[in-house]
Task: structure prediction
Amino acid sequence: MIHIEGKPCRLIATEEHYVARELLEATGRIVSAGWQDLDLADTRFFLHDPRGRAWFEPLVDLEEGRLRMMDEAGVDVAILSLMAPGVQFFEPETAASLAVTLNDHLAETIRRHPTRYGGLAVVAPQAPERAAKEIERAMRTLKLNGLVINSHTGGEYLDHPKFWPILEAAEATGAAIYLHPRNPPPNVQRLLEAPDGRPVLGSGIWGFQMETSLHALRLIVCGVFDRFPKLKVVLGHMGEGLPYWLYRLDYMYERGYRKQGTGLAKRLPSEYVRDNFFITISGMNDHRFSQPTLAYCHSIVGPDRILFASDHPFQSTQAAVDVLRNAPFSRQDIEQIAHRNSESVFHMAPA
Amino acid sequence: MIHIEGKPCRLIATEEHYVARELLEATGRIVSAGWQDLDLADTRFFLHDPRGRAWFEPLVDLEEGRLRMMDEAGVDVAILSLMAPGVQFFEPETAASLAVTLNDHLAETIRRHPTRYGGLAVVAPQAPERAAKEIERAMRTLKLNGLVINSHTGGEYLDHPKFWPILEAAEATGAAIYLHPRNPPPNVQRLLEAPDGRPVLGSGIWGFQMETSLHALRLIVCGVFDRFPKLKVVLGHMGEGLPYWLYRLDYMYERGYRKQGTGLAKRLPSEYVRDNFFITISGMNDHRFSQPTLAYCHSIVGPDRILFASDHPFQSTQAAVDVLRNAPFSRQDIEQIAHRNSESVFHMAPA
Result:
C-alpha cells in the first residue's frame, strides 16, 4: 500500500522475477556443457556463480525475505515470473515438462500467499501444441494470471504460423503475454561484441531492448493482431522504446508498405500499440531520471496502458515505487498505473 | 528564413540528400548484378525503377527545383549529403576513387551556390588510410562542412581499430561525422523479414534505427570517445532513440561493466551522448505527432544538442519546418536548433 495525496492506493508489481529448484537443476546441466551464449552467461552468473549471490538469494526467496521487502516498499501484490529465458533454452520435450512442473509449483506458492502473489505461467514455445494446452490448464485450472514468454525461441518469433496455437490459446483464455526480453539469437550476438569478441552490449544495456522491440514490431507488421484481435501483449522497460517511434513507424508503414499494397497488417502500427499493448515501468526506475520518460509515455500511450513493475531483484523495488509516487499525474492516473490496469490485464480480484 | 515571434531566423537543414551521376552509374552496375540486400533494394527502387521517379527527380536536382522548394519552406541553407549507403557498397578501390570525384563535384555545386549549400564529404571506410587523407582534403582544400558515414561497412563498425585513422582525421580536422542509417548487415537482415522471407521491417520503419542506434552505442561503450575526445557524431531521427534510454544505459553500464572492471569506456554512456553527440529532427516531422518527442529530447539533451534537418526528399521539408516553428521553446532555443548549433558543428559562417 502506498499513499497518494494522503489516500491509500493498492500497488501491484507486474515484473517480479523468481527462480525455482527445477530451473536451477536444468540450467545447471546446460551451464556445465560450456555452450557460449549471452543468455547462458547471465544464467551462469546469477544462478551458478558465487559472484551472483546477491541476486541469487532474492530470486529463490518466495517467503519471508521477499514479503518483507514488498512490505517495506509498499507493494501489495507481486505477479511472479520465472527468470528469463525460462524454459526456452531447453529441448522441446524437457521444456514442456518443466513448464508444467514450474506452473504447478508457482500455483502452490500463490495458494500459500493468495493476497500477496499472482503469477505468470511459463510455456515452451518450442512445443507449440503442448504450450497451447498448458496455457488453458494454467489459466483455467491453476488460475494463473497470464503468460511470460522471453522473446525468441531458437531464433524464431511468435509471428511464425507454427506458434499460432499459442496465440490462439492466449486470446481464448484472456491470457496477456508478458513479452519479456532475452538476448538476440546467437548469430546476431556478434553485433553486441567489441572487435576483440568481448561482450559490450549484451542483456540489459542493449541486447534486451533491441531484441524485444524487434519482436513486438514483428507481431505488429506481420498482422498477428488482425488474426488475434483480442490478444494482449505487455512490454516492460517503458515499452522497449516503441512509444518513441510511433509516428515514424506509421509514416513508414503507410508509405513503404500499405500504399504499395505489400503491407501484411491492416492497420497502422500505432493503432496496435494503443489497442493490443500495455507497457510497464520496469527497469526505468530512477525517480529523477525516469520522470521525463514516464511523463512522455503517459502523453503518448495514456494512463490506461501503463502498469507498475520493478524488475526485482535486478533493479530496486523501492526506486520503482518512488518513480510512481513522484509522477506528476492526477491521483486517478496513478491509481490506474498502480493497480487498476494490472487488475484488468492480469485478472486480479480488486482488493 | 523563418519568423519566430515576428523576428527573422536563419534556417539550416542538415540532412538533405542528393544523388550524382557518378553514383547512378556505379549503383546501376551492382543493381544489374542481382545481389539481394535491403539497401540495394532501396537503391534499385529510388534510382533505377520508374516507380521511384517521385524521389529520383528531387534527388538529382541541385538547381532550380531544390532551391525553389527550399525558398518555399523557408530553408536558407541545405547541407547536402549523398544518398545512403553512398560509396559503402563498393570494392575499396572503386569506393575510394568515387569518393574523391563525388566530393570534388559537391564542392563545385557549393561554389555555384555558396549562400545556399553546404556539404558533407563521403569517404570509403573500406579503405581507411585513403579515407583519412580524403577527410583532410575535403575539410582543408574543398572546405566541405563535415562527413557522412552510413553506418556499417561490410558488417564492420567504426569502433574497430582498422577505422581509427578515419576517426583521427575527423577529430583533427573538426569534421563532425553524420552517422546516417543503412540497414543492418545482410546476415542480420533475416530478422527484418516475415516468416515467408518478405521484408517487413527494413529501412526507415525499423532497420535503419536498429542499425544506427547500435553503431552509436558501439562507439560509446568501446571507448572510442576516450581515444578521440573531441570527435563529434551527429545522429538523425531524434538521436535514433538514444535519448529514451540514457538512464538505463548508464545503470547497466555502471553495474554490469564498470563495477565488474570489464568496461572499455571510462565514463557513463550518457556523458558521451551529452558531450560528443548531436541529434537532428530528421524523419520525425509531423507537426502534431513529433512535438512530444521533440519536447522530450529538449528536456533530455538540451537545446544546444539539437539540429534542424528534413531528410529531403524522403520526408517533407515543409513539415519539418512546421515542427520547429510550433515547438514550445523560447525563441533563443529555436534559434539554437534552427541555425546556431549547425553553424558551430558544421563550420558554417554566420549569415
Observations:
- Chain A touches chain B through 52 residues (CB under 8 Å).
- The two ends of chain A are 11 Å apart (CA to CA).
- The longest strand of chain A covers residues 12-18.
- The mean pLDDT of chain A is 96.
